[in-house]
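Give me structure tokens for this 116-residue protein.
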Amino acid sequence: MTGEAGEMVHERPHDTPVNHGSADWRGGTAAAPRYPAVGIVASTMMAAWTAVFVAVAGLGLTAVSPWLAIVVNVVVAGGAVPAVRRWRDATTVRWIVWGGVPGAILGWAALAVLAL
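Here you go.
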């Protein structure tokens, strides 16, 4: 069906609820995942990758200047906070967030130990 300017117009009965998928991913109202093991594996892998990246990048920056490593880590973490807060309740992305945050903390701990 086309409208006045030739654009497509989709009509639905007014009493039919709009289906936005399985859940409202912005509101965190998603049902429990069917396969939580997949999410746990994704979280674990993300934690490992994030920890290794933070530690290695921090060691490289520490070789230049310890203050540079601190400033870069604070700026990057501060910039990531708004996105992480939005994504933590998203249906699929929450597994990545739940792995990335502990991974960053583990990476900072490893960086502190290795930089001494």
